[in-house]
Amino acid sequence: MIAQEQKPMEEILGYLDGKQKVVVMGCGGCATFYGTGDKKAVNDMAEKLTKEGKSVTKIILPLGISACEIDMSAAYLVKNRTALENSDALLMMSCGDGVQVVTEYTDETMGITKEVIPANDALGLVGGGPTKFKETCQSCGMCELGKTAGICPLTACGKGLMNGPCGGVREDDKCEVDPDKDCAWVKIYKRMEKLGDIKRFEQINDPHQWSKAKRPRLFEIEKEVNPVAMMLGSLPAYLPLLGRPKIEEK
Amino acid sequence: MGDEVYSDLMRELKEGEYVFTGELEPEKAGNVNEPIRMAKELKGLVVACNVTDNPQSFAYVNSMAASYKIQEEAGMECVYQLRCADRNRMALLSDVLGAGTLGLKNILALAGDHVSLGDTPDAKPVFDLDSTTLIKMIRTVVDEGKDLGGNEIEDPPKLHVGGAAAPGAAHLKAEVAKVRRKIKAGVEYLQTQVVYYTDVLDKFFDELGNVDTPVLVGIFPARTFGQADFFDKFVAGVDVPPDYLEAMRKTKEIKDKEKRKEEVDRVNVEFFTGFLEHLKGTPAAGCHMMAVGYPRIIPELKKIME
Ligand code: SF4
Ligand code: SF4
Questions:
Q1: Cβ contact (<8 Å) for A163 and B117?
Q2: Strands across the sheet with A120-128, in order?
Q3: Do B166 and A207 touch (CB under 8 A)?
Q4: Shortest CA distance to B272 belongs to which of B226, B219, B234?
Q5: CB B184 within 8 A of CB B210
């Protein structure tokens, strides 16, 4: 998921200076998990903006409807066409993807060009939960995990080294760059040790192929999916969630 | 390792002489007058001097430019330190070719400290290659006349590549396994991070086992208490012994400059006598004396090794 946090209110208000009618749109994907674009976040934001004298229209996306998945979110934009047309600005409570996908759709498909303002700062692709998350993958386009016992050195190593550890590992196997973090390469070593394959640690890894991450990346899948049918069709598959284990967070 | 010998450092290592190298630090300045002055003082005492590349990620005079000027003006052979922290693989290759063009004969390939630890913390860290892949690239350039993409290099540079090792690493097994990777990559000599404890050194050599690659052990006789304290506090992977640190701290109390100098020298000679005596019995091929700005101590310490 894309971790995110809300920008300071002063920054948001700075962007909205002179804009009276504001559409506030949330996101039912990552932003809902991080509390930066769920129903409550949108309501709280609307309340604050109303107090500042703005007139606000809310677009709340339910869980599972991501702003960045335009096939789903477009329905909510179209439903609010009039409010969008009459607004001075659109405040997006999502990551930067959601902001830009929605902007492109309103501009190019709906023919509505409005000032768009991000309410959140996106902080990277992270995993974990329910309250603690960690960046473990940067979507580099050429996964190296098969060489590194399942721990990503590009992301988990402070220097992104393909051949570590560097000379700076601290006491307790912490990272030179940040004593609060574990050295990724010592973790890789220990995991290979547990896998009984420590000789693999002496193999030289080639430099990473950054050409696979030439930006911006465009991506196409062969088969169109129908997310609505998928969601409804898989309802029974959600049953295990009723007995989900309690996660002990470290 | 190829059989070719391009530098005095490599000649001494191959001939099995006990090798001494020194260290020079370019400054944040528009010249390298001070390192040149130091290099002149070190002539005859060490076979070559490392020229640091933005140590601790403080940005100083480019180490290639500094190495060239020092070789030209002081006649001191240089070990040009080159770190991956600030350059991508293209820039590294250009620099290796540049070093050859300027007549530099030794490179020390380093990953480098993270930029966030230095005086320009907002810089974008690069680390496109790491020390191992930089070593491998340099060997391919020199031995095969090819770059990383397999492109031909006309008249490839003739130089040797060394690497670093950290005997004091918190996780020694992982560190040594990484050093083995450097050896596989073709590193021609190793210079260690500063060591103060003989047991740290012994554990390192035990873990490393028998290798053909010569190892120069790094020592750091501090010129002032401040230098020793900085090393203890800020240099990754180095622990300065409290007794030595305390003896150095006391030298600060001596008002008379000459007397203070004498006392600093005495503290260093006293501390390093035991260490260097011990060093003689290890597989070390020599000693890398990082006595930055402190050339007068080197003859004293060399005496112990005789
Ligand atoms: S190598 Fe790391 S960044 Fe790249 S895809 Fe794999 S986990 Fe993600
Ligand atoms: S200490 Fe470990 S994780 Fe940190 S930069 Fe060095 S090798 Fe990478």
A1: no
A2: A2-6, A120-128, A133-135
A3: no
A4: B219
A5: no
Architecture of domain A2-125: 3-Layer(aba) Sandwich (3.40)
* CATH architecture for residues B8-305: Alpha-Beta Barrel (3.20)
Sorted by where each begins, the domain ranges of chain B are 8-305
CATH 3.40.50.1860 domain range(s) in chain A: 2-125
Long-range contacts of A207-214 (CB under 8 A, 24+ apart): A207/A162, A207/B89, A207/B128, A207/B129, A207/B133, A207/B148, A208/A140, A208/A142, A208/A144, A208/A154, A208/A162, A209/A142, A210/A140, A210/B128, A212/A140, A212/A141, A212/A142, A213/A139, A213/A140, A213/A141, A213/A142
ipTM over 0.90: yes
pLDDT per residue of chain A (250 residues) written in tens, 0 to 9: 999 999 999 999 999 999 999 999 999 999 999 999 999 999 999 999 999 999 999 999 999 999 999 999 999 999 999 999 999 999 999 999 999 999 999 999 999 999 999 999 999 999 998 899 999 999 999 999 999 999 999 999 999 999 999 999 998 999 999 999 999 999 999 999 999 999 999 999 999 999 999 999 998 988 888 888 888 898 989 898 898 889 888 7
Cis-peptide, bond into residue A216, ω within 30° of zero: yes
Question: What residue in A sits closest to B125 (Cα-Cα)?
Answer: A159
Q: Identify the closest residue of chain B to A168 by CA–CA distance.
A: B236
Ligand nearest to the CA of A150: 1
Q: Which of B175, B207, B239 is the mutation pick for testing A, counting most A CBs within 10 A?
A: B175
DSSP assignment letter at B26: -
Q: How far from the centroid of its chain's Cα atoms is residue B8's Cα?
A: 16
Question: Which residue in B58, B60, B56, B76 sits closest to B68, CA to CA?
Answer: B76
CB B26 within 8 A of CB B51: yes
